[in-house]
Amino acid sequence: MTAFIEYENLLKVLKALAMRLTSEALGAVEFGRFRLLPHRRELRADGVAVELGSRAFDVLMVLVEARGALVTKDEILSRVWPDTVVEENNLAVQISTLRKALGEDRDSIRTVSGRGYRFVAEIRTSPAEAAQSTPSSNLPMTVSSLIGREPEHQETSDPLVGVVDTTDASSSSRQPSRRLDWRVFASHLTRLLVASFSRVLHSRDQTSPQIRSIAVLPLESLSGDPSQDYFADGMTDELISALAQISALRVISRTSIMTYKRVRKLLPEIARELNVGAVVEGTVLRFGDRVRISAQLIEVPLERHIWAQSFEGDLRDTLVLQSSVARAIAEQIRVTVTEQEQAALQNSKPVNPVAYEACLKGRYFINKRTGDGLKKAIEYFSHAIERDPTYAAAYSGLADAYALSGDWKYGVLSPQDSFSKAKSAAEKALALDDNLAEAHASLAFALDLYGWDWEAAETEYQRAIKLDPGYATAHQWYSWHLMMMGRHSEGILELTKAESLDPLSLIISADMADALCVARRYEEAVQKSKKILEMDPNFAVGHYELGQALAQKNLHDEAIVEFQRAIELSGHSGAFDSYLGYAYAMSGQREEAIKIVDDLHARHDQNPSADADIALIYVGLGDQDQAMIALNKAYKARFKASILLRPAFDPLRSDARFQDLLRRIGLPQVTGPNLLH
């Protein structure tokens, strides 16, 4: 039995080797506007290299070699994935990738229903090009040196198996024959086979790699309907959340992942940008009340295929399917999963399909981070709760939507209204499921932002992070709690963790710039803000953060430019307008500053927290009495107290009235150098 298994493994190795040899021996292949260079593993369109993953390239090679003949699905699977059992859906994904790459020539790949594929484009070859090229370094030098050159011995007339020759009979007599010295080739091949067989004998001792960081790329919807994007995005979120519960694994969060949606990049490049050891690719297909999730795990930068599998079930069992995928991945990468984490992954429950779909739509709109998006999110989460009053995740999402709706950036609800509704929804979620990390973070956020119950908020944040160490948002929000408590170093460390989990999140990076400014590390804040704007020059908050740091460096004219740009990009808001007014005041443009004070007063009904913003401008104008009057009004409106951390308020810190305000809010009463601890 052992011998049979090893023989089968050897066959797989030989099949892979045969494909490699064919790729090396085949010269440049042309069809339409494309040029395929097997020896370079490169596809060019009008002379420009086309980004193509290694699996897609191998599939294309198999199809081109057949020269219009039918290639069955089984044959492609056995040649492209010689040492792995994979689902047919993986092949469908690669075919789809190839057709997208071919663009207008996508019909060159013809589907033969139920059987396989044909490559029907007219093919032209240039055998000489291979002879002039450097052989692939993937092959041992002894074999590579034999391929693609004119042989010295011509005794045999047998052509190399697998080489595609598209020249016609009339031209063949005029073309020099490309043949190999088969006696020399056989000798080298024998040595190579011995090495391959030796590798097979030892393969039983090899295990899956240990991977400690992973990225779940946006799952592709196979529905073909853009209106169903929310469903595939939701599936991606769920899988990320399931894996993020494993404390030994760093899982990249949603915000960074979604930057790769519909973006054509090679896997090694993505891995380098996210600093991960593996990626998960996959597809989602919803048909009626059923859903199929297909996923494959790939080690990078080698692009080594580790595992692939499809999971199918009822829509109500979607969470169970996601947990199954997460457990399978954890097993493949040999990551340590604690008993508590195992229990969490196995504790997924069926959900009401209508409620689940509404919840996915709620998360889709809350992630837009706009006023209109938050309103729609509240509607969808509320609908989910109507359909299933026991759905804890819907209450948690509703809590986040309410809490964010009272933030200065959106102003959908008043702070008092936001707090009461957010707190109530979060508490209901925890009553239904006390192990839901998102709900603990939601409650903590509401307690911090509007409740000023700092001790309870810290407990909830710590509980959330313990339940889900990979939840970047919990680390992000907790960092600001620590900053509010005067624990700046700890706060910046938490933000560093959040950045590690969500490295491409602009808002987390902006929070880091803000925290550096609060810590009076102004030059670092400037540099961080500039890096953010390199990622997205039109990110309004990035300009706001840069302006804030420049203002504290007394570069007021430069700061004014940044605040004006933020307003131009995003419209008026209390934060942007107040800092522009502050910069005007500090630069001696008092009239401009007072105009903004008047504008904020006029918009007071739209932003009940505007008094704190007005206070900031009065500090810049040097009017501490008016600043304290405005802050006391803001206190009654339950303003976002984190504004008091801003260095711009330093002139007030020694004022007894300001110290009393801090005491009433429950914040540390510190002045001078103690601020930096």
Q: What's this model, at a glance?
A:
With 677 residues, the chain is α+β, with helices and mostly antiparallel strands. The protein has 30 helices and 14 strands.
Strand content: 5-15%
SSE-based structural type: alpha+beta
Count of all domains = 4
The tally of helices reads 30
Rounded mean pLDDT score: 79
CATH topology of the largest domain: Arc Repressor Mutant, subunit A
Percent of residues in helical segments? 55-70%
Largest sheet: 6 strands, mixed
Shape: globular
The first-level CATH class of the largest domain is given as Mainly Alpha
CATH architecture designation of the largest domain: Orthogonal Bundle
Distance between the termini: 68 Å
CATH superfamily of the largest domain: Winged helix-like DNA-binding domain superfamily/Winged helix DNA-binding domain
- Which regions have little confidence, pLDDT < 50, spanning 5+ residues? 1-8, 17-26, 127-206
Q: What is the radius of gyration?
A: 31 Å
Per DSSP E runs of 2 or more residues, the count of β-strands stands at 14
Oligomer: single chain
